[in-house]
Design goal:
Blueprint lengths: L6 H11 L11 E2 L4 H8 L6 E6 L5 H9 L2 E6 L5 H7 L6 E5 L7 H8 L4 E7 L5 H10 L6 E7 H7 L10 H9 E9 L4 E2 L6 E8 L10 H13 L5 H8 L4 H10 L13 H12 L3
Parallel strand pairs: 2-3, 2-5, 3-4, 5-6
Antiparallel strand pairs: 1-8, 6-9, 7-9
């Protein structure tokens, strides 16, 4: 079989299995031969490494990961792609395909069973519609993983990798920063896919912190503060929190002041440490 990123090979595979793309699953197959080798290298696939992939497609990235890593476990939701993957990856004995929904799979158990005594990384071309939920699941579950290297929509990449305290910052930026250090690796044009999406993509890497960036008295409250702060991002922090949290406006005002933050500040202007300080002050009132 020819290269999996070759248009002719892809069409041959699709015809062989009578496969048609699913818009609902955000399926766009890579036809740029340089992208997946670069992702696999920068994503840390190598000797002694186990890789979790999410969304295998026809196996273009899986193929590159399998050439480098000790073992690859690839999670694919679309049942129609399982026979395709068994074909395109038939030369490898270090690949396991799991037909399932990553949001419902016990990843901690999977890692224990599939990667004993191995360092584990995640490397995936994520469907745009599920980018943030997948990333937050991987981080919130505190899995024993070293990093998460994913291709996402360019706009999502900009937000995830934004410097805190700038206009591009969103709730997900701050939340991810608590668990990991994000960096932009490289951009991928829409013409690199079949069919081409309407927007460009980018590959980012989240290096997972061994300890959270800040210490807080209550993590759940911290994330409530972050979410509430950005729920009405054009309003001041005081008004956004007052409209979305179960505290009196006077209590929130005092908490913000005691945290050393200006009452007129907006969410996008704050650092993670500021959100943590506000959450700790509010926690004293519980």
């Amino acid at each position: 079989m020819g290269k999996l990123s070759d248009i002719g090979t892809i069409k041959e595979i699709l015809n062989k299995y009578g496969f048609s793309f699913s818009k609902a699953l955000g399926q766009n197959f890579l036809i740029n031969p340089s992208v997946c080798p670069k992702m696999a290298d920068l994503g840390g696939a190598g000797q002694g490494i186990g890789v979790i992939e999410i969304g295998s497609g026809i196996g273009v990235l899986t193929y590159e990961l399998a050439k480098r890593a000790d073992k690859v476990v690839s999670i694919e939701l679309d049942t129609r792609l399982i026979p395709v993957l068994n074909d395109t990856l038939s030369e490898f004995d270090n690949v396991k395909i799991i037909n399932g929904d990553v949001m419902k799979i016990d990843l901690k158990k999977l890692i224990e069973e599939e990667f004993p005594e191995k360092k584990v990384v995640v490397c995936a071309n994520l469907p745009y519609y599920i980018t943030s939920p997948v990333i937050m699941k991987l981080l919130e579950e505190r899995l024993p993983i070293e990093s998460i290297t994913v291709m996402v929509q360019k706009e999502a990449a900009d937000r995830l990798c934004a410097e805190l305290g700038t206009r591009q910052t969103g709730a997900v930026t701050v939340s991810v920063n608590y668990y990991a250090e994000a960096e932009m690796l490289f951009k991928v044009s829409s013409g690199s896919f079949m069919p081409p999406p309407k927007v460009d993509s980018a590959v980012i890497k989240l290096s997972v912190r061994h300890e959270p960036k800040v210490n807080v008295k209550n993590e759940q409250l911290l994330f409530q503060v972050i979410k509430a702060a950005f729920s009405q991002r054009r309003k001041t922090l005081l008004n956004s929190l007052s409209n979305s949290m179960q505290f009196k406006k006077s209590e929130i005002s005092e908490a913000i002041s005691l945290a050393g933050v200006e009452l007129s500040a907006r969410a996008e202007q704050l650092k993670l440490e500021d959100f943590a300080a506000i959450a700790d002050e509010l926690y004293k009132l519980k």
